[in-house]
Structures are given as structure tokens and as C-alpha cells.
């Protein structure tokens, strides 16, 4: 699994560099994260696949096309548990732009392609996701945001459902950005998650309602175009069908834009 991750990351980076070389007016960002758990819309996505806990490796390459708000991206989540592995590849197409200097809107589509190896004939957990978002921040560091997602399972037995979240956060510039690009921000965020009923063949697996509350801390270190972010998040699960525990997870991410 680690070998697949390394080769996949190098391949994505080569594609990004080639796109940058051939098209001068593109924005490319290469990023990756290492996390102790994979929490998706409040759900522990690793345990929902019948596996155990993490950790998870999550590489991603995003390309902004020209000077337009259109982006395409490819990424994935790679988890090893005992003798089994979860290989999830994600494909993204989205538009994202600032409607004002402090307000950003987004609309996009994501496809989750799941494979569990080496389990033969593992059932299809692929998901189509249509999402929209709105977030804003002010000069004092206060951040607010809302997001709405429509999840469509590739399995006919599962009905589509909506997920929504609202968040409030604050960023403190512990080291204001210098002309050389050095900087350090300390961030805190709280988030409330809501979902409509999740049903399979007419049976409600998860009732509609507020499913989870999250609180997180992170720090953004910036230097020479690279941003490194250690993070820690705690979730209070309000629905046992979402999680039968209150997960705590952490990790570190890195991103480079060129």
C-alpha cells in the first residue's frame, strides 16, 4: 500500500509539473495529509467498510484552469488494516471564486471510487457527491462557513441523502507573514453536522437530524511557498448509527502551490 501511495504521489506531481510547463496560465497545488482516522461527513469511513481504525494517507493534486474559477483535481485515501487495504481514489471538478474580497462561493462534483484489497468481490461503496459552499472571513480573523452535499450511492439498495454543516472559526496570526513568506497562524473551529435520513430498501439506517458536533485546533506554518499544518479534532457523535463512539483524531498536512 505504501509503495502504491508513493508511486501515485510521484505520478500526480509529474502530471502537475507537465501541465504547468505546457500551459502557462494554470495554478497547481500538490498536497498530502497523514491522519489517524478518516472521518467523512461525521462517519468513520474506515470502520463503515468493515475495517478497523487508521491511519490514512491522503495525497491530492489540484489544477486551476487558466484565470477562471474552474478547477480539476485528483486525490485519494489509502488505509492499511491487518491484511486488508482500502484504496479510495477521488476525482473532482469544481468552480470556486471570491464574490467579494472576504467571501468565497463554490460548487462542484466529486466521485469516490472505493476498492478494498485483497477481499474478492467486495461490494461497491462508490459515491457521487454534488456540493456547494459559502464561507467568509473578516480582518479580525473570524471565519464562518456553510456547506451542503448531496450523496448518491453507486449501489441501488441505498437511497440518496443530504449532508450539511455550519462552522465558526477564528485565526490568530501568531507570526504575521514576512516579505520572505514566513508565517504562523493558530486556528480554532467548531462545526455542527446535519443529515437527512439514510435508508436502504426502505429501512432507515440513520435518522434525519443533527448527527455530530466537532471542535478542532490547527496551526499553519508557511515558508517558501510550503504550508505545513498539524491538526487535532474531536467529535461528539449525536447519532450512534453515525459513530458508536466520540472519535478523536489528528494528523499533519502539507501543501505546495506553484
CATH architectural group: Beta Barrel
Beta-strand content: over 45%
CATH 4th-level superfamily: monomeric porin ompg
What is the CATH first-level class name? Answer: Mainly Beta
What is the fold named in CATH at topology level? Porin
- Radius of gyration computed on alpha carbons: 19 Å
What does this structure look like?
The protein is mainly β and 258 residues long. The protein has one domain: Beta Barrel (Porin), CATH 2.40.160.40. Helices cover 10% and strands 63% of the residues. It is built from 2 helices and 16 strands. The strands form 3 sheets. A 12-stranded antiparallel β-barrel has the order 1-4-5-6-7-8-9-10-11-14-15-16. A hairpin with a 2-residue loop joins strand 2 (39-40) and strand 3. It starts with a helix and ends with a strand. The model is unreliable at 1-23 and 118-122 (pLDDT under 50).
List the helices and strands and how they pair.
Blueprint (H helix, E strand, L loop, with lengths): L1 H21 L3 E10 L3 E2 L2 E2 H4 L7 E10 L4 E12 L2 E17 L2 E15 L9 E11 L4 E12 L7 E15 L7 E13 L2 E3 L2 E4 L2 E15 L2 E12 L10 E10 L1
Antiparallel strand pairs: 1-4, 1-16, 2-3, 4-5, 5-6, 6-7, 7-8, 8-9, 9-10, 10-11, 11-14, 12-13, 14-15, 15-16
